[in-house]
Amino acid sequence: MQKGRSIFLAAILACASAAAACAELKDYIFIVKPVYHEKTRALFHDLARYFADKGNSGAESYFTTMAGEYAHGTGWIVVDQDGQNYIVTNRHVVIGAEKVNIYLENQDGTQKAFADCPILYVDAQMDLAVCQFPGAQRVFKTGFKLDLRQQKDLTEVVAAGFPGFGGKPLWQVSLGTITNSQARIDTAYSYLIQHSAPIDPGNSGGPLLVRDPSAPQGFAVAGVNTLKALKRESTSFAIPARNVAEVLDRARKAKKLAASPKALRSELIRSCNVLAGELNSDNPVDQDVNQHISYAIVGEKGWQAYQGVLATVKDQTQFADWFLDDPVEAMRTSIFWFFSAEVDRQSGAAIEFDGINPADEGKISGREGIRTNFAIGGKPKEIEWSLEYGQWRISNMSLDLPPGTEADPGLTPASASAAQSSPPGAQSFLALFGYPGPYLGFDYTGFPWPPVRIGLSAGAGYLFDGSLFVSGGPALSVIRGLALPLRVGVAVTPQGTTFLIDPGILFLFSGLTLGVDFGYMLSGSVIIGIGLGINWPAGRGQTGGGDGT
Predict the structure, then answer these.
(1) For residue range 226-240, what is the model confidence (pLDDT) as tens digits?
(2) Which of 115, 292, 378, 411 has its Cβ near the most Cβ atoms within 10 Å?
């Protein structure tokens, strides 16, 4: 009996110890909410209203979330020996944002807010970002310790963060084990830590912890939770702490750069020369050039640029997919596309950096835009740069964009409850000549592109024996450039009225339709026709995105 009581008391003490540890963990882990640029938020509001008018509540809700302060992730604190505070989170939590708001949740559920926290550094390859409190405040005296050791399989881990529940962040700690200490699934990292601790959307950027009695909280950070495998149970992945240490070093260098006008000037000149060199290259790396475009320019020029690119790309479905999945990045890339196209049209093989605008030489501080002079094919072009995420990026420039309109962005509502795939469409008009007779007819078909879609087709004809017929029915599109209309109708012949079955095949080329028509009247007559026509784009479709961790 005494032994049983001892075990019971030990269990109570263990539970109390675990509860205290969790309470301390929560004090060092935060809610991170991205705040987009003012013009970008205004654009999201416009898009939300646009889709509301179209009756698409799914897209409306998505852009309302983007415009407000609803999206969120998790962050945690690191404190250097000199007292500097750094907030670590995922790149995908903050990307595209101008700043972030940080919320510390107390044990009673109340929150302490830190608004307009600067994003100090975002890594271009790894899904990591580093922020600071406003004015580089030193809110914490101690932070999490990084466990830089190679972790081992079956090590017990704790995932902590603020996954969403009912549209709001909700504190959660979950237990699991390391199931693969070196999961090699992403070339950006040597490996990721695969583990079984449950994580959900909102956990992004939160720490993966291992017990460490020497750490102030009793835990050290082994990694940063970044993604989970869909359609698999208890399969999550974290970026190892050694990668976090590398990114923190780069963030410290970015902070040092921002504090030195001389270093900022040198880095601006280097960035301008790199941009010119990449655009002059016979084989420029689009991704590298794209990194020079600031997210600040998206709200002002991104929408027009996106519509312009959508009108020219071959795979409109894929581009529309991308827009709904990551609208900020899609618009930013569209701006780069127009800039690159301008260089291709004008420069031949010469884009040159002509120096910093003399009027801005004394203003280089990283807090405002700096104008620079370029020559594209001998023509002057002014490009403004701003410091963003620890590097100089283009924040303003003139672009030869299509006129601003309220045209359909390539995204029409699929349903009020969910976004379904509805690829771009086409319409065709076909003039037919054939047997018996000769016979003259026409066919009008409106249908979407593949994958397999069903549209509508209608036709009519006159046979030179005096017969008339009309028909209509579905048109099946199986592969790009091919449609199979299957119509039924009525024919009025000298012998009387009869029903008609009228299938066909339409081959669509760029603006041209080639069609073959087969008809069978129940009276026994056969119709065969062949002809040429025209085709042109119809509506564009909407595709839906999904949630990340």
Answers:
(1) 998 887 888 999 999
(2) 411
